[in-house]
Amino acid sequence: xxxxxxxxxxxxxxxxxxxxxxxxxxxxxxxxxxxxxxxxxxxxxxxxxxxxxxxxxxxxxxxxxxxxxxxxxxxxxxxxxxxxxxxxxxxxxxxxxxxxxxxxxxxxxxxxxxxxxxxxxxxxxxxxxxxxxxxxxxxxxxxxxxxxxxxxxxxxxxxxxxxxxxxxxxxxxxxxxxxxxxxxxxxxxxxxxxxxx
Length: 197
What we know:
Blueprint: H1 5-11, H2 14-32, E1 39-43, H3 49-56, E2 62-67, H4 70-80, E3 88-91, E4 104-110, H5 119-129, E5 130-141, H6 143-146, H7 149-154, H8 165-175, E6 177-185, E7 189-196
Parallel strand pairs: 1-2, 1-4, 2-3, 4-5
Antiparallel strand pairs: 5-7, 6-7
């Protein structure tokens, strides 16, 4: 799904970039470590803030990234034109990733899955494109926050079938992942690192 105007302003803001660097990335590194030399994919890359973090903090060697919103891909391309390394970027969605099976050593999600109506299908597709033993680094927002009466009106998130931590962990395991580590921050954030079994 594409973002409404309020969400787009937040995603493009320095606040979002700061949170992704100082909160989300640090937690994922603590529980999963870096992926030096990995071939990686970022799901829902938005304006590309995570791309540089993946190259420099997680030390991936090559990166593909996509987002459902063409405007976000345009922003990401503009940002990457000023960098030393550029990922392959495309407009797409996490339910149908147009790559061969077992392509990536690691897949990263910085808060995109809660935007997907059929989020369970996206987990199966993410697993499909990962190599056996590959790692899925996932940070996302939990259902209680998304379905809050005020937040639900301000943000244009799907309201049905949102997940809490046990539901998300169960869905990962049913999709064929082994949970390596997870952390939760109140009813807001969930960090998980899982391996393709």
